Amino acid sequence: MVVGVRDDNPFRLSRFVEPSHYDLFLHIHPDQDEFFGRETITVRVNQATTLVELNSVDLTVTNARVGAEAASVTTDAEHQIIRLEFTTPLNVGTNADIYLEFSARLRSDLSGLYRSVYNDEHGVSHAMATTQFEATGARQAFPCFDEPDMKATFAITIEAPDSLEAITNYPEQSSESASEPGFTVHHYLTTMVMSTYILAFIVGDLRSTPPVHARGVPIRVCHAPGKDALTGFALRVAQHAISFFEDWFQIPYPAPKLDLIAIPDFAFGAMENLGAVTFRETALLVDEARAAQSELERICDVVCHEIAHMWFGDLVTMKWWNGIWLNEAFATFMETTASDAFNPEWHKWESFGIARLSALNVDGLPSTRPIEYPVIAPADADDMFDLLTYEKGCSVIKMMEQYLGEDIFKAGVRNYLNSHLHGNAETEDLWLALQEASGEPVADVMNTWILQGGHPLVSVDALPDGVRLSQDPFRFLGEETDPIGEIGANWMVPIVTRELDGQQQRVLLGQQYQVVTATAEPVIVNAGGIGPYRTRYSQQLLPKVCEYFQELTTLERFNLIADTWSLVLANQSPLSDAIELFNRCSSETDPNVLQTVSAALSLLLRISLPEERPAVAKLTQSIFGPVLDTLGMEPTVSDTPRAKVARSVAFAALGTIADDDEVSAQALQWFREEMSGVGGPSGDLASAVLAIVAKHGDDSEFAFILDRYRNPVDPLDERRHLLALADFRQPTLINRVLPMILTSIRSQDGAFVLNRVIANESVGVLGLDFAMSHFDELLARLPVNSYDLAFGSLSSLVTSDSYLRANDVFAFFETHHLPAGGRLLAQTLERYRVNLRFRDRYAGRLRSYLP
């Protein structure tokens, strides 16, 4: 009897046959609703069978043969599988050819093979066909063995209109006129062995830069017409990244070319298709003279991240989607390392503190998850693309690199890659390689971090000759009746401590406490600030640490403030502890520390009663006023990259939280200069200026921002002005913005706008009502991967008016469920409970805590 799918997972294909090569032909016209194709898949026969299974979603198979015999086709839509049945068994140990003809509609949900529509510089509309296959989108474009360990080579042929460019993973080998007039047939070189999810097909009116080279690899940026001037920065970053990664991995770049392709409609930031990386335009194209420092750094990060995947992901691939966390976490680690090398003045590992904090804020909630967990259905894989995969995963890897040492860590990673070149691996394979290189119990340590959710709170208590370290799980919701959820316990915590004279000690903290001896106070725990855990100093020790606040490293200062504020939110420390630290930041120069303080003050403003708001504004002024006085409002040639970002954080805090008259007047002046076409703010201050103007603006400012969104200077300019539309405070203006989410705003951007409206302190309830009354329409309109983002700011509804709607929010989502992103929505609702409890404790009592 022939069994189809594996008994333990009905979504997995059988291994009776496995692919070795695809000859794939696709006829694609972006202006036509339907595409069609044909393919011959050469398979290895592992077991005699009269049934072959492939993955297929929304494809119509019109002809199927296995060998020379016609095959019947049945569809298992639930498990996304088609089954080809025939009468003559395939013989074990032989190769066989599967021939299929198929067709489908170009999709509109930014998945599979889909259509992107954009206007050129003359306002003429164009269509582009492009792909997004990770995690399981390839099966929406052609029948295939769409599992990461079923690798094969691919010979791609694309038939496309003569006037359009056609790009895929490898260079074009030849072309000829098609039998259909007006079409060209493009043949491409056969790829290396690779997984289906990193294939890409793009057909459209594209322009490409002349290639630049890195270690002999040609690199181009491909884009819609009129955007060539925005490509130089990404090209330089890509040249750096290829050279950097070849040296770091000691393995050559694995493909014969690298195309970086800007896509107008794109659900993710970017996608690591081998040799043909696709990007959201704002993650690739930039005018360096107009861009903010943070925008340049983000583009560098994204480009480096995707190129890192060429080795870690494309060349060596996880066996199954439970390993996707390592794929993305390690690429995030390498992205930060490479960006830091591209410009050391950016201090990228210090900036990463903000990203890690976002992950820990999720990880302290009951609905957190282990970094790695079993993946059964495709939707399970989709849920892995979150902060816990990227940021917490990266933090855990960085912690291990620090513990082992950089050279030993590199040696282990190189051994791992060389042992699995062109193949697949499990997470455990990397731990074993690091263990072999170091002699340390890497697997034992790492499994406590990746196989359970949550993270530890390391308590530091004073001893006569040092400190005692112990751990407990950190929980934001820590009352006896609160669920624990997937927050675990008893981590193996690699801890580095130091005394102020620089002397360091390393301990591995387990279930039993550890004593660290010291000759001087204070002892700094989590020295260097790398460890992804929180630290709580006893009430005896905290004042001593605060006394030396300015002598701490940047990440140590950041962690002290972030950990203390989190303990306040979790009702484990008094608000006065946080205020004491905030008041020490008036001479702070690091933008990440300042951003953390600004976010905390913003929440204080939200929960404050009207009579308390002046006190919050005064505190904000006392902290950020001196910062801006030191930096100045105007950029200078001597500005460091961090000074540019710090100025923007301080300017925004003073203009939106403190309502500083001078800052507001300067913002309005720059805005009017921008309207007149002469002058305006620097790129670093542009978003802050728009937010401040929108807070106080009326119809005339709204009209200009709306027009600028519709007629932008570049993609980043478009995004800035789009988001600023959501910052206006008048209900009449916001009620003009909200319907645009379902109509004229690109679907890729709709969730960002809705999130921003709900977060708007004055009109958030309008966003809430719109979301609830148009729930089904939003799900139909927005990309699946953005559902959670659309509702991600619900936790900000804690103002004097909006907190009254809390019961409505919880009741609504008890009966309205997201088909994807449900865990992330649950985290948002739990975060809402945290903020509501914080409001209950402190609203009406703030003046006793604020100076």
Automatic annotation (TrEMBL):
The Peptidase M1 membrane alanine aminopeptidase domain, residue ranges: 233-449
GO MF, any single term: hydrolase activity
This protein's record includes keyword Hydrolase: yes
Keyword field: Aminopeptidase, Hydrolase, Metal-binding, Metalloprotease, Protease, Zinc
A matching Pfam family: ERAP1_C
Origin: domain of life: Bacteria
Gene3D superfamilies: 1.25.50.20, 2.60.40.1910, Neutral Protease Domain 2, tricorn interacting facor f3 domain
InterPro entries: Aminopeptidase_N-like_N, Aminopeptidase_N-like_N_sf, ERAP1-like_C_dom, M1_APN-typ, Peptidase_M1, Peptidase_M1_aminopeptidases, Peptidase_M1_dom, Peptidase_M4/M1_CTD_sf
All residue ranges annotated as the ERAP1-like C-terminal domain in the record: 523-833
Catalytic activity, EC: 3.4.11.-
Cofactor binding annotation: Binds 1 zinc ion per subunit.
CDD domains, per database record: M1_APN-Q_like (cd09601)
Catalytic activity: Release of an N-terminal amino acid, Xaa-|-Yaa- from a peptide, amide or arylamide. Xaa is preferably Ala, but may be most amino acids including Pro (slow action). When a terminal hydrophobic residue is followed by a prolyl residue, the two may be released as an intact Xaa-Pro dipeptide
Domain Aminopeptidase N-like N-terminal: start-end pairs: 19-198
Cofactor(s) essential for the protein: Zn(2+)
PANTHER family: AMINOPEPTIDASE, PROTEASE M1 ZINC METALLOPROTEASE
Family the entry assigns: Belongs to the peptidase M1 family.
Protein name: Aminopeptidase
